[in-house]
Specification:
β9 (158-162), α5 (168-181) and β10 (185-188) form a beta-alpha-beta unit. The chain has helices spanning 27-35, 77-87, 103-115, 140-153, 168-181, 222-235, 251-260, 269-274, 278-293; strands at 5-7, 10-12, 16-18, 41-42, 59-62, 65-68, 94-98, 120-124, 158-162, 185-188, 192-196, 198-199, 204-205, 213-217, 242-245, 264-267. It is α/β, with parallel strands linked by helices and 308 residues long. The protein is globular. The chain is built from nine helices and 16 strands. α5 packs across α6 (222-235). The structure holds ligand RRO. Ligand RRO is lined by residues 21, 45, 68-72, 99, 124, 126-129, 190-191, 215. Ligand RRO binds at residues 21, 45, 68-72, 99, 124, 126-129, 190-191, 215.
């Protein structure tokens, strides 16, 4: 079955891809994504300068999901600007994830990265793991100003990676921000920030930074991810493409994201846990499920969730 999808006019050979942060920091990792069955190469969120990230242990997987406080380890935007043209040979979209510590950082990075011609830019407003730095996406005013500035320097499609919102009022406010910023797509959701996982045996935290607090991912966040995909799908009446992220472990999870309104799906925790073979498995599971249910393509069931 053809699992391809189109987002903001860009064709993806399959609707499954890595989430920013998962196996996508180094040239080797990005090229391995290029050779894999991922439908895109999404980079690690990049900052002005290269960063080693937070002290280890900073990622912990467990049966229900994962907790991380990576702290934005990345090569710095200049390195990615040099790498991106060479990644295009893999024949799939390259998505540059842009972060920063100030509004000016985002604008500087976006301007230069845009010139290296990724197929899309994803603006990360939702890193939960920098000590003392609140998640930008929880401040609508700063988010709007920042996005409007970035929009002015970006000519490729611009998307926004948002944190999870747990109240419809917050989703409505952010939908207004997104509308006013001219974003071309949304990626929903980043990890559920500042969770805490405890090891009762050792009576301690499982990651070191920030006293053990970190972003939650994997199966346990699926309902929050689906709720945000669905809420924004409705707020934009299906007219703004959404990449669903959160809790994708099986082809059925992908299907649920599609039903809620996603045009494509990113895989984070399960990619880190299972490796690059996950895209073949998920693709097969999704194709089998769609065939069994009589849906001709992923887009045929997009947003088609029935309400009781
Ligand atoms: O690097 C991280 O700690 C990180 C980032 Br930038 C992000 O956006 N989401 C996340 O869970 N971890």
């Amino acid at each position: 079955m053809d699992l391809s999808t189109t987002i903001a006019g860009v064709r993806f050979p399959t609707c499954l891809m890595n989430a920013a942060g998962a196996l996508c920091v180094t040239r080797e990792e990005l090229e391995a994504l290029g050779r894999s069955s991922s439908g895109a190469i999404v980079t690690k969120s990049m900052t002005l300068e290269a960063r080693a990230g937070n002290p280890e242990p900073r990622y912990h997987g467990f049966p229900g999901g994962s907790i991380n406080s990576m702290g934005l380890p990345n090569l710095g935007y200049r390195a990615y600007a040099e790498l991106i043209p060479g990644l295009r040979k893999f024949g799939k979209p390259v998505v540059a994830s842009v972060a920063g510590f100030s509004e000016d950082d985002f604008v500087t990075i976006a301007r230069v990265i845009n010139q290296s011609q990724p197929d899309l830019i994803e603006v990360n407003l939702s890193c939960p793991n920098i000590p003392g730095e609140p998640q930008i996406g929880y401040d609508p005013e700063i988010s709007e100003r920042l996005l409007q500035r970035v929009r002015k320097v970006v000519t490729v499609p611009m998307g926004v990676k948002l944190p999870p919102y747990l109240d419809p009022a917050h989703q409505q406010t952010m939908a207004r921000v997104i509308r006013n910023s001219g974003a071309d797509f949304l990626s929903l959701i980043n990890s559920v920030g500042n969770g805490l996982v405890v090891d009762p045996q050792r009576e301690c935290t499982v990651i070191k930074p920030k006293g053990g607090f970190g972003g939650l991912g994997g199966a346990l966040i699926k309902p929050v991810a689906l709720a945000n995909v669905r809420a924004f799908w409705k707020l934009f009446e299906g007219r703004l493409p959404i990449i669903g992220t959160g809790g994708v472990v099986t082809g059925t999870d992908v299907f649920e994201h599609l039903l809620c309104g996603a045009s494509a799906v990113q895989v984070g925790t399960t990619l880190v846990e299972d490796g690059l073979g996950v895209f073949d498995r998920l693709g097969k599971e999704l194709a089998d499920l769609l065939t069994r249910k009589g849906h001709p393509s992923p887009s045929a069931c997009r947003g088609a969730l029935k309400e009781l």
